[in-house]
Write a structure and sequence with these properties.
Blueprint (H helix, E strand, L loop, with lengths): L6 H28 L4 H9 L18 H14 L1 H20 L2 H13 L3 E7 L13 E3 L10 E3 L4 E7 L2 E3 L11 E3 L1
Antiparallel strand pairs: 1-4, 2-3, 5-6
Length: about 180
């Protein structure tokens, strides 16, 4: 089913489609074979505002609807899945910060994430599962406890956490229950 996007969102999807056809598709094979980071394409994505699509306007973003995000992802993946992945992980972490971050964390990270100055990703794995989300066996459930922050985790998770891609520094993230969080400085 094709979604009828609002004019502004449809224009953004069309701009991404043009970028993919003009820049990405003609050069992706050479970049992939050279094992090079797509710095110029990431820069274009930053200039287009794509890293702010899940960040509230109050923090400098330009949030878009889920159908528009799906269309953006489809266009990026049509050119090179790695670009869709770069945006996808960033959006997941942006949404986590919006939903569960403290006001101080949101004020610190979201404006820089909206511009792409800080780009986030999500890393997860389990023995035997690798990064296959369908094979994950880890689960968490609430249980009766004196502290509402306590959780019982089952399985043998190696690690799973959102990260911001820059030099590393560990910061506390008490509002992101049972999640280790690494962000850049």
């Amino acid at each position: 089913m094709a979604w009828a996007l609002p004019e502004e969102e449809a224009a953004l999807v069309a701009a991404v489609r043009s970028f993919v056809d003009r820049d990405v598709r003609p050069g992706v094979r050479a970049l992939e074979h050279a094992d090079e980071y797509p710095a110029a394409w990431i820069e274009t994505m930053k200039q287009m505002g794509l890293f702010g699509v899940a960040v509230p306007e109050a923090h400098g973003g330009m949030p878009i609807s889920t159908p528009a995000y799906a269309a953006l992802t489809e266009e990026l993946a049509r050119g090179w899945m790695s670009l869709a992945g770069a945006l996808g992980g960033h959006v997941v972490v942006s949404k986590l910060l919006v939903a569960h971050g403290t006001p101080a964390q949101q004020a610190h990270w979201l404006p820089r994430m909206a511009t792409g100055a800080v780009r986030a990703a999500m890393a997860l794995t389990e023995p035997g599962g690798g990064s296959d989300l369908q094979a994950m066996a880890t689960s968490a459930r609430a249980w009766i406890s004196k502290s509402p922050r306590e959780r019982m985790e089952t399985s043998n998770r190696t690690w799973s956490f959102p990260i911001a891609v820059q030099p590393w520094a560990r910061i506390p993230a008490p509002s992101l229950r049972a999640t280790s969080t690494l962000f850049s400085t």
